[in-house]
Specification:
- It is a single chain.
- The protein is an alpha+beta fold.
- It has one domain: Lipocalin.
- A hairpin with a 5-residue loop joins β6 and β7.
């Protein structure tokens, strides 16, 4: 029943904002869902589920599933549309480790939530990670890093491949 409700919700969202087609007119060439308005949607929208580990039973597998969301209100695009920025939130199904070290200490943080600020070169279909935030209790930032800015292409069905069209074209 839950699967049926989820399927209904997906089809309902897919129909939102679709342009009406005149009878006898060929279907429009589009692969995007166009929402009429986003003002009533939550800030963080689910775009994917990911597997953080490989369980031995189906119940273990379900415990390994994480979720990936994007924040629609953080999308910014350059005036010419060549670049776009977006924040993505990854809620892991299993705790992850993040290591911090300086000259005198080494600290390991266990976390299940991280946020990533991506910048896309929409023309070249490449991205960089501008900033990564490790979130603690109450969604407070407990660690952050700014990786080296090297543009690279998204891989296959990765999160960056999923959110690139959302950031660059809005759909």
């Amino acid at each position: 029943m839950l699967k049926l409700a989820a399927l209904f919700a997906i089809f309902t969202l897919a129909a939102c904002g679709q342009q009406q087609q005149a009878p006898g007119e060929p279907p429009a060439e589009t692969d995007a869902i166009i929402l009429g308005s986003t003002q009533n949607l939550p800030d963080w929208l689910l775009v994917a589920r990911q597997r953080d580990c490989r369980g031995e039973t189906p119940e273990d597998d379900r415990a390994c599933l994480g979720e990936v969301h994007f924040n629609q209100r953080t999308i910014t695009r350059s005036a010419d549309g060549a670049t776009a920025d977006i924040w993505v939130q990854v809620r892991h199904g299993q705790p992850q480790l993040y290591e911090i070290e300086d000259a005198t200490t080494e600290t390991t943080i266990r976390y299940t939530l991280q946020r990533l600020h991506y910048r896309f070169n929409c023309t070249e279909q490449e991205f960089v990670v501008v900033e990564r935030q490790i979130m603690g209790a109450g969604e407070t930032v407990v660690a952050r890093d700014e990786p080296t800015q090297i543009y690279r292409a998204p891989v296959g069905r990765s999160i960056t491949a999923i959110v690139l069209p959302i950031a660059c074209r809005g759909g």
